[in-house]
Write a structure and sequence with these properties.
Elements lengths: L1 E8 L3 H28 L4 H16 L3 H14 L16 E3 L4 E4 L4 E6 L2 E8 L2 H7 L2 E10 L2 E9 L10 E7 L3 E5 L4 E3 L1 H20 L2 H10 L2 H24 L1 E6 L4 H4 L4 H8 L3 H15 L3 E4 L24 E3 L6 E3 H15 L15
Parallel strand pairs: 8-11, 11-12
Antiparallel strand pairs: 1-5, 1-7, 2-6, 3-4, 4-5, 6-7, 8-9, 9-10, 13-14
Helix pairs in contact: 1-2, 1-3, 2-3, 5-6, 5-7, 7-10
C-alpha cells in the first residue's frame, strides 16, 4: 500500500526565497503549457512534450527534468476532462523525482534543485515518517503553506496478509457520537462539536467586523479546527482498529457515500451536517486496517438505526430520540447507536467478502 510521509523543510532565508521562486516559475511554466495545449487541442504528455519542451526551457530557464515534470503536471490536469482550460496557482505544488531530488536520511538533509541551482536543505520529521522514508518510491511533491515548505514523499509499505476472522466488529458513525462499536464502546463527539461550533461563531463574528485585525485573526485561525478534527479521527480510528486486531475480528462500516445529498435537515443544522468528517474517519480506519491485516466490510446503511435486533421490526418510531431506541412491537430498548452498531455487525457477517486462495478456490468466506 502507498502512504505519504510529510516532511518539513528548514531552509535559510535565501533558500526559502529560492524555493518560492522555483514554485512560482514552475507554475508559470505550467500555465504557459496549458494555454498552448488548449490552443492546439493537444493534451497527451508525449505530443505536448514535443510541442512545448524547447520553448519552456528557453522562456522560463528551467532544467530539463523540471520542464518534464511541468509538462507531466499539465497533462495530468487534463485527464479529468478537457472542457475548460486549466490554470495553476502561483505557489501550487510541484513534483520532484530522483533526478532533481535526493535524500540523505541519516543526515536529515535533502538535495533539491531550485532556480539558484542545487541546494542542501535540512528537514525535520517524526520517527514514523523517518521509518516510512526507508520505503519511499517515485515522486515527492514540494508544497508551501503559511510560509513553511514541505515535501510529501510517496512510500510503498508492505501489507501483511489479512487476518482470518470469525466475527465482525460493527461500527456506527455519527455526529453526536463520532463512533460507537457493537461492544458498546462510545467515542463521543462532544469535544469536537464544541470546537467546531465555537470556531464557526468566532469566524462569523470576525467576518462581520471586517477590520484588518479581524481578518488577521481569521487567517491565524485557518486550519486549526480542521487539524484538531483530523487528530481526533486519527485517535478514534487507531483504537477501533487495535480492538479489531487484538480480538481477531473484521470491521463493518456503513457505506455513507452520498449521504449529504440524500439527507434533508433544517437550516440551523446544515453547517453541522456538512462539517461531519465521516469519510475521513472511514479512510483512516481503512488504511490503518490494511497495515494491521484487518478486513474492512462496507454494508448498506439503510434502517440500521430503525431495526430491532430482537424481533426484526423496522419502524421509524423505534428511534424516539437521537440516543434512545425502543421497539414499538416487542419493547426492546437500548442506546440507539449501540443497537445500530450491532445491526451493522450482523450485516457484516452476512456480507463477508469472497477471498480466493492461491489455487483460485474460496478460502471459506
Amino acid at each position: 500500500m502507498k502512504l505519504t510521509a510529510q516532511i518539513k523543510l528548514q531552509p535559510t532565508t535565501e533558500q526559502a526565497d529560492a524555493l518560492k521562486r522555483t514554485l512560482e516559475t514552475a507554475n508559470a511554466a505550467c500555465n504557459y503549457i496549458s494555454s498552448v495545449a488548449w490552443q492546439n487541442k493537444t493534451f497527451g504528455q508525449y505530443k505536448l512534450h514535443h510541442l512545448v519542451y524547447a520553448d519552456v526551457r528557453a522562456k522560463f530557464g528551467l532544467s530539463a527534468q523540471m520542464t518534464v515534470r511541468c509538462i507531466a503536471k499539465t497533462a495530468d490536469a487534463y485527464k479529468l476532462d478537457r472542457e475548460t482550460e486549466r490554470t495553476f496557482k502561483p505557489t501550487g505544488s510541484i513534483a520532484y523525482d530522483e533526478r532533481i531530488l535526493s535524500w540523505k536520511i541519516k543526515l536529515s538533509i535533502v538535495s533539491i534543485w531550485t532556480m539558484d541551482g542545487r541546494m542542501s536543505i535540512p528537514f525535520v520529521c517524526g520517527e514514523r515518517q523517518r521509518e516510512l522514508l526507508q520505503t519511499r518510491q517515485g515522486e515527492s511533491d514540494l508544497a508551501t503553506a503559511n510560509g513553511n515548505y514541505f515535501l510529501f514523499a510517496t512510500c510503498n509499505v508492505e501489507e501483511p496478509s489479512p487476518i482470518e476472522f470469525t466475527d465482525v466488529l460493527g461500527v456506527d458513525t455519527g455526529i453526536v457520537n463520532i463512533a460507537t462499536d457493537s461492544d458498546g464502546e462510545v467515542h463521543s463527539g462532544k469535544t469536537i462539536n464544541n470546537v467546531r461550533s465555537r470556531h464557526r461563531r468566532l469566524r462569523q463574528k470576525l467576518q462581520r467586523k471586517g477590520t484588518k485585525s479581524a481578518k488577521r485573526r481569521v487567517r491565524k485561525l485557518s486550519g486549526k479546527e480542521q487539524r484538531f478534527g483530523k487528530w481526533v479521527n486519527h485517535n478514534v480510528s487507531k483504537r477501533i482498529v487495535a480492538k479489531a486486531q487484538h480480538t481477531g475480528r473484521a470491521i463493518a462500516l456503513e457505506n455513507l457515500e452520498g449521504i449529504r445529498d440524500r439527507v434533508r435537515v433544517r437550516k440551523p443544522q446544515r453547517a453541522t451536517l456538512h462539517s461531519w468528517s465521516f469519510h475521513q474517519l472511514r479512510t483512516f480506519i481503512e488504511y490503518k486496517s490494511q497495515r494491521a491485516g484487518v478486513t474492512v466490510i462496507l454494508v448498506d446503511p439503510r434502517n440500521t438505526s430503525r431495526t430491532c435486533p430482537s424481533c426484526g421490526c423496522i419502524n421509524k418510531a423505534n428511534r424516539r430520540t437521537q440516543s434512545n431506541f425502543t421497539c414499538v412491537t416487542c419493547g426492546f430498548s437500548g442506546l440507539a447507536d449501540h443497537i445500530a452498531a450491532g445491526n451493522i455487525s450482523s450485516r457484516g457477517v452476512v456480507n463477508r467478502p469472497y477471498v480466493p486462495d492461491r489455487l483460485g478456490q474460496s478460502s471459506g468466506f
